[in-house]
Each structure stands twice: as structure tokens, then as C-alpha cells.
Amino acid sequence: MPMTAMLSSDLPLPRIGRGKVRDIYAVGDDRVLLLTTDRISAFDVVMAETIPMKGAVLTQISAWWFRQLEGTVPHHMISADADEIIRAVPELQNHRADILGRAMLCKRTTVFPIECVIRGYISGSAWKEYAAVGTLAGEKLAAGLVESQKLEPAIFSPATKAEAGHDENITVARVREIVGDDVAATLEKMARDVYGYGEQTSRARGIIIADTKFEFGRDKDGRIILIDEVMTPDSSRFWAVDAYKPGQPQPSFDKQPLRDYLDVERHAGRWNGDAPAPPLPASVVDATSKRYLEAYRRVTGSELKV
Fold first, then answer.
1. pTM
2. Largest alpha-carbon pair distance within the chain?
3. What is the average pLDDT across 74-90?
């Protein structure tokens, strides 16, 4: 069904966080509501326009993965169904249209300040560093790799979490310093387990998950659990299996139409790369929305229905 695009939310709950895309609300002391808007960012700049259905795509892909991962890793999702959420949080009774498809009720955790990145292929910032000096986060990689090459085994490439701007790649040794040896080992194992399952599952559906980032936290019982979003087009680099050609950049299965448009504006001297971004043509908004919906269809095997 058509949904009204959402730039920001205003629910009758205490708002405890606002990211580039998500608004976070407290639900009592031990739960949170993650509300994914239709905001979109590129090159660390949030656009003025919304991308219809994007919030629902991100929420429902994550929900689908959490359901698939039952028994593989513990996670924070309680429900991503609007009616179930309203039964659990009656204050939202009059806000069903706002939360429909785009909200997830979750266990509240103490979040580890680490982005647990798994790189199955060398691309993006990792490729730029490797091409320049042959390293990733300062650690030497094998010689002779080409852009977009499959890495065997995949590399655990953690990063610090940045509130604004780019996350910074760090070494595994630095992760140990931040969270301790045992937690660092657990985070790496859980991240590898989830990526291994996701990469195999997605490949069978025509999508390569080239790299992805996970977040983890401790729940009230002290367990380390998977949180935030999981293997979405925003947290991952999705490539089409049938278009994959190592040795060059790959078309990305997410906001590529948006990036392409902004690249043209930058190279033409009409945008300097800082906020505010140039207005987006309706054709770019529509093409980007269709990319997200197609990613959902490919990953889950069904059309998005909310």
C-alpha cells in the first residue's frame, strides 16, 4: 500500500536519539523503539528530500534477517509488526500510520562503541587504502589484489562509531584495548557467523554482500546480542551477482542513482560536497526508491507489503 514519506517523527515517547536515518525512542527502562524515516544521506550529507518506502525497506529487511538468524545469534528485535507494537506500547494507538512498516520494538542494550565490519570483497575505503599503501587499517594485506576482488577468508575490519562524518577503520588490537580480549573475540565470531549466513543466503538470491557492518550491545542480563539494522542496503554494499566483474568498481544495489547524480553535480562545480546538497530531481528520488524495493524483493524473495 502507498505510504506517506517521512522526514522526521514525533511520537508520544521520550526521544533519546536521532541519527541520519533513525529516530530512537525509550519505551520504559528496558526497551526502545527504532523508527526508520525516509531520510537519506550520501557523502555524509543528509538530503532535504525523502525516498519513499526506504524506511520500511530498511526495517523490514532487518526484521526478515532477524527471523532467519534465530538460533544463530541472539538479537534485540521484539517485533516489527505495527499492531503487535501497539499492543505492547498502547501510547502509540493513535500513531499506527506513523509506525506502520518502519518501526521496530527492541530490547534496550548498552551498545559497544565499535562498528563490526566484515569485508568479503575489497572495495570502497578499504580499496583506496590498499591501492595506495597495500594495507587495511595499517595492517598489510596480500600483494596483487584488484578492486572488488573476493577476499578469502573475509576480513574482520572494525571501525570506530562516528556521530558525524566518516567512521575510522581501526585494528583488531585497538578493539581489544577498547572492549577487552574476550569481548573482541566474541564480537568478531558473531559478526563472521552472521555475515557467513547472510552472504550465502543472498548469493542464492542474486545479490553479493560485498561488505557489511554490524553493531552489538549487552542486554540487561549481560548477554552480547546483535542490534540495530542487519544486512540492509544502507549498512551493506550490495552487488548483483550477474553483473559482478572484479578489477573495477561495481554498481551498488542501493543509493547508486543518488550518488551518480551528486557526482555529476560535484564535477560540474554546482556542489562543493558540503551541506546543503542540491535539490534532487523527481527521477532520482523515484529511481532510488525502486532500487531499495528491488533489494528487498531480491533478499527476501517477496514484494514489500506493509
1. 0.93
2. 59
3. 98
Type of residue numbered 269: G
Q: Strand, coil or helix: what is 214?
A: strand
Would you say 161 and 167 are in contact if contact means Cβ atoms under 8 Å apart?
yes
- Interatomic CA distance for residues 97 and 3, integer angstroms: 8
| pLDDT above 90 as % of the chain | 87
Q: Kindly report the number of other CB atoms within 10 A of residue 282's CB atom.
A: 8
What are the CA-CA distances from residue 290 to residues 48, 138, 285, 296 (Å)?
19, 38, 9, 10
Domains contained in the chain, CATH given = 15-108 (3.30.200.20), 111-243 (3.30.470.20)
Cell of 271: 556542489
> Which residues fall within 8 angstroms of residue 121, CB to CB, at 6 or more apart?
148, 149, 150, 151, 208, 210, 211, 237, 239
Q: Cα–Cα distance between 290 and 287 in angstroms, integer?
A: 5
Exposed e or buried b per residue across 185-200, where buried means at least 16 C-beta atoms within 10 angstroms of its C-beta: eebbebbbebbebbbe
Instruction: Return the minimum-mean-pLDDT range out of 107-116, 142-151, 166-175.
Output: 166-175
254 in helix, strand or coil?
Answer: coil
Grid cell, residue 97, equals: 500510520
